[in-house]
Amino acid sequence: MNEIIENKTFDEIKIGDTASFVGTFTREHVERWAAVTGNLNLPESFEQGGGQAMWAATLFSTIAGTQLPGLGSITKAASVRFHSPIAT
Q: Tens of pLDDT along 17-48?
Protein backbone atom coordinates (compact mmCIF):
# COMPACT_ATOMS: atom_id res chain seq x y z
CA MET A 1 0.00 0.00 0.00
CA ASN A 2 2.19 2.81 -1.29
CA GLU A 3 -0.47 5.42 -1.88
CA ILE A 4 0.56 9.06 -1.74
CA ILE A 5 -1.54 11.03 0.72
CA GLU A 6 -2.31 14.54 -0.48
CA ASN A 7 -3.46 17.05 2.09
CA LYS A 8 -6.04 19.70 1.33
CA THR A 9 -6.18 23.00 3.11
CA PHE A 10 -9.52 24.15 4.49
CA ASP A 11 -9.86 26.59 1.56
CA GLU A 12 -9.30 23.77 -0.95
CA ILE A 13 -12.20 21.68 0.35
CA LYS A 14 -15.31 22.30 -1.71
CA ILE A 15 -18.93 21.24 -1.41
CA GLY A 16 -19.27 17.91 -3.14
CA ASP A 17 -15.74 16.68 -2.32
CA THR A 18 -15.86 13.08 -1.17
CA ALA A 19 -13.66 10.51 0.48
CA SER A 20 -14.26 6.84 1.15
CA PHE A 21 -12.80 3.90 2.98
CA VAL A 22 -13.32 0.29 1.98
CA GLY A 23 -12.36 -2.59 4.22
CA THR A 24 -13.50 -5.91 5.60
CA PHE A 25 -14.88 -6.08 9.11
CA THR A 26 -13.82 -9.38 10.67
CA ARG A 27 -14.28 -11.11 14.01
CA GLU A 28 -10.64 -10.21 14.78
CA HIS A 29 -11.54 -6.51 14.41
CA VAL A 30 -14.42 -7.01 16.84
CA GLU A 31 -12.17 -8.74 19.37
CA ARG A 32 -9.61 -5.94 19.16
CA TRP A 33 -12.33 -3.30 19.47
CA ALA A 34 -13.73 -5.15 22.50
CA ALA A 35 -10.28 -5.14 24.11
CA VAL A 36 -9.85 -1.40 23.50
CA THR A 37 -13.32 -0.40 24.69
CA GLY A 38 -13.68 -2.93 27.49
CA ASN A 39 -17.02 -4.04 26.04
CA LEU A 40 -16.44 -7.78 26.13
CA ASN A 41 -19.98 -8.45 24.88
CA LEU A 42 -19.00 -7.29 21.37
CA PRO A 43 -17.71 -10.64 20.05
CA GLU A 44 -21.09 -12.20 20.82
CA SER A 45 -22.97 -9.32 19.20
CA PHE A 46 -20.82 -9.75 16.07
CA GLU A 47 -22.45 -13.13 15.48
CA GLN A 48 -25.86 -11.44 15.73
CA GLY A 49 -24.97 -8.60 13.34
CA GLY A 50 -24.32 -6.01 16.03
CA GLY A 51 -21.34 -4.19 17.45
CA GLN A 52 -20.19 -2.74 14.16
CA ALA A 53 -21.83 0.67 14.36
CA MET A 54 -19.41 2.39 16.71
CA TRP A 55 -16.43 0.75 15.01
CA ALA A 56 -17.71 2.16 11.72
CA ALA A 57 -18.21 5.59 13.29
CA THR A 58 -14.53 5.72 14.27
CA LEU A 59 -13.60 5.49 10.59
CA PHE A 60 -14.44 9.21 10.25
CA SER A 61 -11.10 10.02 11.83
CA THR A 62 -9.39 7.52 9.50
CA ILE A 63 -10.83 9.29 6.47
CA ALA A 64 -10.08 12.76 7.84
CA GLY A 65 -6.49 11.84 8.68
CA THR A 66 -5.68 10.04 5.45
CA GLN A 67 -7.86 11.54 2.71
CA LEU A 68 -9.94 14.61 3.36
CA PRO A 69 -8.31 16.90 4.38
CA GLY A 70 -5.36 14.58 5.19
CA LEU A 71 -2.40 14.18 7.54
CA GLY A 72 -2.49 16.24 10.70
CA SER A 73 -6.29 16.42 10.77
CA ILE A 74 -8.08 15.83 14.04
CA THR A 75 -11.75 14.90 14.31
CA LYS A 76 -13.08 16.91 17.25
CA ALA A 77 -16.70 15.82 16.94
CA ALA A 78 -18.96 13.72 14.78
CA SER A 79 -22.69 13.13 14.92
CA VAL A 80 -23.69 9.72 13.66
CA ARG A 81 -27.13 8.23 13.20
CA PHE A 82 -27.62 4.74 11.81
CA HIS A 83 -30.96 4.11 10.17
CA SER A 84 -30.45 0.36 10.03
CA PRO A 85 -27.97 -2.18 11.39
CA ILE A 86 -24.61 -2.51 9.70
CA ALA A 87 -24.52 -5.92 8.04
CA THR A 88 -21.76 -8.44 8.55
A: 888 878 777 878 878 877 888 877 665 555 55
| pTM for this prediction | 0.58
Torsion-angle region of 37 (φ positive above 0: left; ψ -120 to 50: alpha; else: beta): alpha
Contact of 45 with 88, CB cutoff 8 Å = no
Radius of gyration in angstroms for the set of CA atoms belonging to the chain, rounded to a whole number: 15
Q: What is the pLDDT of residue 39?
A: 76
DSSP H or E stretch at residue 53: helix 52-57
Q: Is 34 left (phi over 0), alpha (psi -120 to 50) or beta?
A: alpha
